[in-house]
């Protein structure tokens, strides 16, 4: 199985995505590729977790100035082109959108290419990227029962973060121990 996890920007997107990737790898021996943006926290966390990361250039559309929205609108065709090319190159069996700017182009391209899609939504009200694709995706994994009403095919799954958080805590302890040993 080959999967793309698309999105990021914040730990709220990336931590669950890493937990999903770990589960896919453990349970299905899946190959996982992450798709994110240059300015998100995925640039540190994903490579540190041992997963490949490809970047798309896409800007903000929500809670930004008109100038930024216009720039993003003009950049969007390139983001879609880049995401589509990555999907062609990687040939995933599934694309999982975890929210964030990179999620939108990846999910839209996957829908057009008829690649199965899954939207992951940990919030009660879906974020911007998931709201844009909610009626197009093959399914959705949501944290709250109330969130299921936003997606035609949703399953309440909770938020998978446990193993990732424990790994991050262990890595943090090792870092602190290493710094302490150098003093």
Keywords for this structure?
about 180 residues; alpha/beta; Rossmann fold; seven-stranded parallel beta sheet; 6 helices; globular
Strand content: 15-25%
What distance lies between the first and last C-alpha atoms, to the nearest angstrom?
Answer: 46 Å
The biggest beta sheet reads:
7 strands, parallel
Write the CATH architecture name.
3-Layer(aba) Sandwich
Estimate the mean pLDDT confidence: 86
Class by SSE composition = alpha/beta
> What is the CATH C level class, in words?
Alpha Beta
How would you describe the overall organization of this protein?
- By secondary structure, the protein is α/β, with parallel strands linked by helices.
- It has a single domain, classed as 3-Layer(aba) Sandwich (Rossmann fold).
- It has six helices and seven strands.
- It has a seven-stranded parallel sheet with strand order 3-2-1-4-5-6-7, sandwiched between helices.
- β1, α1 and β2 form a beta-alpha-beta unit.
- α3 packs across α4.
- It is globular, with a radius of gyration of 17 Å.
- The relative contact order is 0.15.
- The mean pLDDT is 86.
């Amino acid at each position: 199985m080959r999967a793309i996890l698309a999105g990021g920007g914040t730990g709220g997107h990336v931590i669950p995505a890493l937990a999903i990737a770990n589960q896919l790898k453990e349970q299905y021996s899946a190959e996982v590729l992450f798709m994110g943006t240059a300015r998100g926290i995925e640039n540190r966390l994903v490579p540190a977790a041992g997963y490949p990361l490809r970047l798309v250039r896409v800007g903000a559309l929500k809670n930004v100035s008109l100038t930024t929205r216009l720039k993003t609108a003009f950049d969007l065709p390139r983001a879609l082109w880049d995401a589509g090319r990555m999907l062609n190159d990687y040939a995933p069996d599934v694309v999982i959108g975890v929210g964030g700017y990179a999620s939108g182009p990846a999910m839209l391209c996957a829908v057009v290419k008829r690649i199965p899609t899954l939207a992951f939504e940990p919030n009660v009200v879906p974020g911007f990227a998931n709201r844009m694709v909610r009626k197009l995706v093959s399914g959705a994994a949501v944290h709250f029962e109330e969130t299921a009403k936003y997606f035609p095919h949703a399953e309440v799954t909770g938020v998978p973060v446990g193993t990732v958080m424990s790994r991050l805590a262990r890595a943090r302890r090792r870092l602190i121990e290493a710094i302490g040993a150098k003093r």
